[in-house]
Amino acid sequence: MTNQNFPNSNSALAVIILAAGKGSRMKSALPKVMHEIAGRPMINWLIETVEQLNPEKIIVVTAPDMGDVKDAVAPHQCVIQKEQLGTGDAVKPAMKELQGFDGKILVLMGDEPFLDLADLQNMISQDGLSVMAIEAHDPHGLGRMVLKSNGTLDKIVEEKDASDEQRAITLCNAGNFCFPAKHLGDWLEKLNNDNKAGEYYLTDIPAIAAKDGVETHVITAGARNVWGINTRLELAEHERMAQIMLRTRAMQNGVTMIDPDSVTLSWDTTFGQDIIIQPHVFIGPGVSVGDGTTIRAFSHIEGTTIGQSTKIGPFARLRPGSSIEEGAAIGNFIEVNRSTIKAGAKSKHVSYIGDTTIGEGTNIGAGTIIANYDGFYKHKSEIGKNVFIGSNSTLISPVVIGEGAIIAAGSNINKDVPANAMGIGRSRQENHNGWASEYRKMKQNQKNKLGKKAVK
Ligand code: UD1
Ligand code: MG
After folding, report:
1. For strand 304-306 and strand 288-289, is the pairing parallel, antiparallel, or unpaired?
2. Is the pLDDT of residue 4 over 60?
3. What residues act catalytically?
4. The domain spanning residue 40 has which CATH number?
5. One domain for residues 140 and 78
């Protein structure tokens, strides 16, 4: 059967990703598939791989209260499984969206972010039904592949339902199937929940298909330490794998890491060449780093564009919406938030720069604070080119400091300063000659009279 929504449909592919499970082993209020690996939800890693198969449709199955999953997978479609009755039941709401589709349907587990594209292509290229298997180092929690004496699949047994002998099997179900669309609806109707978990298991389908004379091809993916994410430990293991992959790619492309294991990157971090990253640097999503930049130890960077030949840190914090342009320097204990530091500008010691543009060649003295928040609103300030801000100054936003201006150290500035003017906003100093010696004398007399007792 063909349908006008699915042209050439008998060779076409649709993908269903199951993501409605409670994820109770994660002990979390967040849907399992929204837990992040290298800064993005695990389901988005899987979707990136699946998109490369160019399917007609990708349909994600979620539970009723998972609006954030819907947002994360957009523009792909979400359907809702009202009650979480098992992986077999979860496929059913997606089938309603595939009426008339006559190609292949790949059903994937949303908690397996690192599927290999070639393994999926291999599954799709098989006739009939195929299932992915893995040789697991630790098969705990996985379904076991029970083979016939001729090596073909007899059935899949979930761990909860397995005998001791079946539990000893290390060839496990990776969870992913490729079905001929024309049979899948019927096979799903034949599932029952007569098992220890009381769930409709997708894994019962190979045995049902065999009765219709459809063999299941087993595609074995490479051996893995862990397979799928059911617990926080497995999440951490996937994070470790992602970090190794991201660091390797960065180093292959010209980044030096003195201690790679202590550097955290994000899925979308981009680097130029000849960048040096010192130990203990965290890079969150939305960061790009230009050629020749050095990021010193213990810096925390998110959502920031870093230009060429800049120096960042040690102990710098760059927050989203920031840009550090060519040759600029951000030193220790500097927080930059939604701000632009233009070419060659410097802020090297203990400062907060929020909602501000800092002009080319400007120098921000130690301890400068831009007071951008009045308790209700955030305000913007602009500091021109080649300005010098003396140490321990507070700029109360919004202010505009003109090109070439100098701000005297220790100033509170709440009015604009014209170009090339000196802005000073501090109380005047007075010196009282001899006052200190008089004071010491007076205090010493008091102590001689009262002894060491505290004065009331
Ligand atoms: C499943 C397989 C197991 C396999 C393992 C591999 C079944 C019955 N078991 O077990 O053989 O070794 O994956 O990772 O298929 N989900 C729903 N609705 C539900 C239940 C689950 O959408 O009612 C989704 C979950 O969100 C998850 C996926 O299906 O993304 C797998 O569910 P999960 O509970 O993690 O199954 P496993 O116990 O890992
Ligand atoms: Mg799982």
Report:
1. parallel
2. no
3. 349
4. 3.90.550.10
5. yes
